[in-house]
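Side project, low priority. Logging it here so it doesn't get lost.
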Amino acid sequence: MTELNFPAGYIFGEHGEYMILRSAPLSRNIRNTFSEVYLAVKTKTRKKFAVKVLRPSVIRKFDRVINDFQAEIKILMELNHRYIIKIEDFGTIIDANDMPSFYLVTEFIPHGNILSKEYTFNQQINFSLQVCEGLAFIHKNNIIHRDIKPDNILVYEGKIIKIVDFGIAKFYSDEDMISSVIGAPAYAAQEQISKSQPITHQVDIYSLGKTIYTMITKIVPPPGVQITELPEKYLDYPWSKDITYIIKRSTELAPSSRYKDVNQLKNDLKKLYQKSKIPKFIKRKRVKKSRTSLKITFALLLFIFIFTIGYSKKDELLSIYRGFRSIEFFKNSENQEELLQKGVELFNLGYKEYNQARIFLEKAVKLKPDDPRAYPYLGTIYSELGMLDKSIISWQIAVRLNSDNLKYKINLGKTYFQAGKYREALREWKSVLEKDPFNKTVNNLILVAEINIK
């Protein structure tokens, strides 16, 4: 039974940017006792997002829940990595029954976690390597996740993992180790369960070792034990000894006996990867092709299609080809209005077209630098593509050319925050409060910025 009431079509966000797509929470998060997660869409771009909303009863009952929620926001805004779930927005929300709460918007991963489908051993090791990269980045930023488990490792399009649920993650330093019992018991390290030792990044290594075990065997391990062997049916596989060693060393009960850091674990996984003759996980390099060769190839394919399949699809294919020629035409255009219009059109198609949109909008800006219309789009695009310095410059110009637009100031502050410039973010958000003192979203942003500065 859901505690909150968000009917399909419910609009929320500071400026009505988001809409709930269906009233029932996402099934994979129903077990979460602290929050409900809904599927929403951004009204402008139609891009889907996951929206985590704190349950009001939990807020009233447990003071620490708000602190944990704010900590999750703080951590996710600190982290910008391919294998970590990305935060989009956050703020306060009131449901259809006038029940107030807090929400967090993140990217939506529709394909479930690492146990939702049957994956080959090669894929499982690939996922494990990606988790190692994500954890290495987290630990480098002095953060311990403390709740690594299969449910918190989602898979996008069967290829890329996303580490999620930072609600109980904490910052740490050598002088200030954390000591508390938090995390799923089956995957929690001995020191988390018994409070016997300070909690360090070693707990994430232990949890990952058990997660790899579950991913391969589909068996949930007992709490607080070291895994020393695989079930009998896996012993004849050529990789069984290597993966058993990795799991055994990761799940040592004494933290000092585990891998020193997650990079050591990753190195052993890489050796297994190569030993099993698994292709290395390498980003594909984009091959530049000349426009002329593309046109010739497309025209040749069109000719072959028409004369081998028939004329039934001729008009449709010709339309696609004209669209291709249209983009080429716009790229060579010197008409600022046409370039701006095309850039906005591509922007509205969503993230996949952002690079193309950027080309048109950048050219439009060069032709007319004082036209304010392109800068907010470029600010958003640069931020989404991880080009934070350029995003900051674009939002700064947008603010200068549209000084009364408070939304631009808020977005400039968010980009500052994402880049780790907390004082600059605080300055922008406080300037918004001078004109809009009752803006709840900005008040929440200021609170998070002040926590980071302290």
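Brief comment: The two ends are 40 Å apart (CA to CA).
Revisit when time allows.
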